Amino acid sequence: xxxxxxxxxxxxxxxxxxxxxxxxxxxxxxxxxxxxxxxxxxxxxxxxxxxxxxx
Length: 55
Hints:
Blueprint: H1 2-9, H2 14-32, H3 34-54
């Protein structure tokens, strides 16, 4: 009976589940905001390119 209680209280696998849930949420956010992220990255890269020519 003691080993059953120890098994129930064991939380070693919770870290893996939490990491997987975080990854799923991040993938969902990227899928929803794909166009906004793409335009933001393009704008940033354009500014970097223009400012690099000044140096």
